[in-house]
Amino acid sequence: MKGFLKNVSLLLLFFIIFVLSQFVVSVVVSFAVGDAVMSDRAGMVFMATYFFSMFLCYVLTTILERVACRSVTPIDHSKRGFNPVAILTGVVLLIAISIVLTPLNELLPANTQTYPEGPLSLVTIVIIAPIFEEMIFRGRLYNIFHH
Questions:
Q1: N or C terminus: which one in the chain shows less Cβ crowding within 10 Å?
Q2: Tens-binned pLDDT, residue by residue, of the chain (147 aa)
Q3: Taking phi first (over 0 means left), then psi (-120 to 50 degrees means alpha), and beta for anything else, what does residue 19 get?
Q4: Beta-carbon neighbour count of residue 128 at 10 Å?
Q5: Would you put residue 118 in left (φ > 0), alpha (ψ -120 to 50) or beta?
Q6: Are 25 and 53 in contact (CB under 8 A)?
Q7: ∠ CA 134-57-42 to the nearest 5 degrees?
Q8: Which pTM was predicted?
Q9: What is the C-alpha separation between 132 and 61, in angstroms, rounded?
């Protein structure tokens, strides 16, 4: 039970780090850029906001790993963390969550464009996002929970 509570507290700390890093960078960018310029350079602002928020999250998660594990292990590139049952469980949970949250979508105001258009947005979504998410979730978070 003690290990479970430690993992829950570490997961809660990670969630707080993730949300705060997104919030802080979004606030800084909105003050620095302003709304008038943001519409003209939406792709660049989106890419910079995502990059810096995930970089801040990675740095803070590395600090969390150093505090929780007393060391920082390099990101493991082996297939040790590959578990088909865990992946299937995650897919089933995502489907269940989407089914539960679908009625809430009708209550939200309609938004025709979620991400800005352009090549910088494409680079952010297709290249930068998966790299940072693998480094943070499979690299740091996996090491924290399996230490």
A1: N
A2: 677 788 788 888 888 888 888 888 888 887 777 655 556 677 777 788 888 888 898 888 888 888 888 777 766 555 555 667 777 887 788 788 888 877 877 777 776 556 667 777 778 888 888 888 888 887 788 777 776
A3: alpha
A4: 16
A5: left
A6: yes
A7: 90
A8: 0.66
A9: 12
Length of the chain: 147
Q: Is there a contact between 21 and 48 (Cβ–Cβ < 8 Å)? A: no
CA distance 135 to 97: 25
Tokens of 1: 């039970």
- CB-based burial of residue 71 (10 Å sphere; 0-12 exposed, 13-18 middle, 19+ buried)? exposed
Alpha-carbon distance 144 to 75, whole Å?
11
